[in-house]
Amino acid sequence: MKIAVDPTACLHTGICVSLAPHHFTLDHTGTMHLSTDHIPPHQHAQVTAAVHACPTAALSLQQP
Ligand code: SF4
User: Fold this and answer.
1) Per the UniProt record, which residue ranges are transmembrane (predicted)?
2) Domains and CATH numbers, the chain
């Protein structure tokens, strides 16, 4: 499972960062970045919750 980001849709709310801080970060300008592409199985639920919580649908999950 991989995370896909549409940066044009991200409004820098930080919701994904608060729900899955190991995978999403905000830099000093408020721009969201993926910390890692690798999602270990025990973190799938946390990342999935963060993706679904994004208010602008900027995040999606891709199966390999
Ligand atoms: S939850 Fe969505 S809009 Fe908010 S920072 Fe994350 S990707 Fe951007």
Assistant:
1) none
2) 2-62 (3.30.70.20)
Ligand 1 pocket residue status of 10, Cβ below 6 Å? yes
Q: Is 56 in the pocket of ligand 1 (CB under 6 A)?
A: yes
Output DSSP code: residue 56. Answer: T
Residue 32 Cα, ligand 1 centroid: separation in angstroms?
7
Q: What is the pTM of this model?
A: 0.92
pLDDT digit string, tens, across residues 29-54: 999 999 987 899 999 999 999 999 99
What is the CA(15)–ligand 1 centre distance, in A? 6
* Ligand 1 touching residue 20 (CB < 6 A): no
